[in-house]
Amino acid sequence: MNKQIADIEEIISSAGKSKTGANLKFFLETYGCQMNFSDSELVTSILLDQGYIPSATPSDADLILTNTCAIRENAEEKVRKRLYEFRKLKLRKPELVVGILGCMAERLKEKLVEEEDCIDLVVGPDAYRTLPACIAEVREGRKGVNVILSKEETYSDIQPVRLGGNGVTALISIMRGCDNMCSFCVVPFTRGRERSRNPDTIVNEARNLFSMGYREVTLLGQNVNSYQWNDTSFAKLLERVAMVSPLLRIRFSTSNPQDMTDEVLYTIKKYHNICKYIHLPVQSGSDRVLQIMNRSYNRSFYLERIKAIREIIPGCGISTDIIAGFCSETEEEHAETLTLMQEAGYNFAYMFKYSERPGTLAARKYKDDIPEEVKSRRLSEIIELHRQISHQSNINDLNTVHEVLVEGRSRKSSQYMFGRNTQNKVIVFPADGHKQGTYVQVLVKKCTTATLIGEVING
Ligand code: SF4
User: Fold this and answer.
1) Which terminus of the chain is more solvent-facing, meaning fewer CB atoms within 10 Å of its CB: N or C?
2) What are the pLDDT digits (tens) for 190-238?
3) Which ligand 1 atom is the nearest neighbour of the CA of 321?
4) Ligand 1 pocket: which residues have CB below 6 Å?
C-alpha cells in the first residue's frame, strides 16, 4: 500500500471523529456535463457531513471548489480565468482554501499546483471521499492532491444533496468511467474504467426522490447502455426504476450506438413513464472518420439503429453529438455528416469543432490538420442544417397535444410556465396557477426553432 493512501486513510479515520468543516463556509461551482453536476451533489453531501455551510458567493467562503471539465480546450481556459478572481480573494484572505475537482484535476494532476500558485487542492472524480482529508492536509500547510482513479468507486452509499435545482427533476448516476477509447476523448483518462452501481441503491434513490416530490430522474453514465450489475442489464434497471411509480418520468444519458439494443427499445416502449427520447451521439457521418475516431460502429449500423428506434418507438425524440473538422476530414466526408443528419432528423444536437486534447489517441496518432476557419465554416453549416431540421420538427408538432411535466416559470415571462414533453422538447404555456411537478396536457399553437408554445387543455 503506497504511502499516500496510508496517510490519507490515517487522516480519514482521525478526521472522521472531528468535523473538519465546523462552521466554515464552502462555495462550489460546476462546469461541464451532467455527470459533473451529479458529482457536485455528492461533494456537497460530503462537505455538509463535515459541518461545512454552503456559501452563495466565493467572497464569503473559507473553501472555494471548482468542479471542472476537460473535454475541450476552452473549458479549461474558462477555469484558468476564474482562478484569476480567486487569486485576488486569496490575497485578501490567505487562509482561504482553493481547490480544483473533476476532469481537469485528473488530467493535469500535480501540474495544476505547479502552474497555478493559488491552488491548494487537486482532487479527481474518484477521490471525493478523501476531500476532508485533503483539506486537512492543506490546513497543515501542505498541498492536498489525490487523483487516484478507482475500479470500484461508485459512491453508492453517499446520498447526493441537491441544493440547487427545481425540486422536480434530478440526476442519478448509475455508473462511472468508460471502457471505450474514442480517439478524441479524454474521459477514459479522467474518469477511468467502467463500473456499474448496485441497482438496489439506484432504485432506493429514485424512490426517495419520488417521496420528496421529484417527478423526473435522469439516469447518468458515460455509456449507460453498457450498465451491468450481475444479471441486471440496463434494460432491467430501466424497468425497475420505471416501476417505482407511473408518475415518475425516467430519462437517461448518454448512450453509445453499438450498445443500443432492441431489448432497451422495447423496455422504453413498454412503460409510458420512460421518456420517448434517446441521446445517441454519432460524431461523424463518414465511415473512414468514424474509424479513426475509434468509434465501434459505421454509418449504416448507426442509421439501422435510428430506423429501429423509429419503428419500435414511433415519434421518439432523438438527439446527438457531432464533431466538425476532425483530423484529415475531407469536404466529401463533411458532406456525409450533413446527409446523415438529414436522414436521422434530430430534434436536438450538441455540435462542436474538433479540439485536440493532449494525451488522447488522436493527439498521439493524427495531425490536427483542418484549418480553424474550415472547422468554423463546417460547424456553421452543421448548425444551420440542424436549425432547419429541428424547426421543421417543431412545425410538425403544431395543433398536437403533449403531456408536459411542469418544471417552473419561463425565463422570458413570469406569466408563463415551462416544462418538457416526453420527447424532451421544451413547451411554454400560460401559468394560470399550474404547479411545478404536475402534469398538464398542452395543445401546441405556435413554435420557434427551439421551443413549442401552447395552451393547457387539461390539467
Ligand atoms: S464513449 Fe467515447 S466519447 Fe463517450 S465518454 Fe467514452 S470515450 Fe468518451
Assistant:
1) N
2) 999 999 999 999 999 999 999 999 999 999 999 999 999 999 999 999 9
3) 3
4) 178, 180, 182, 185, 187-188, 222-223, 256
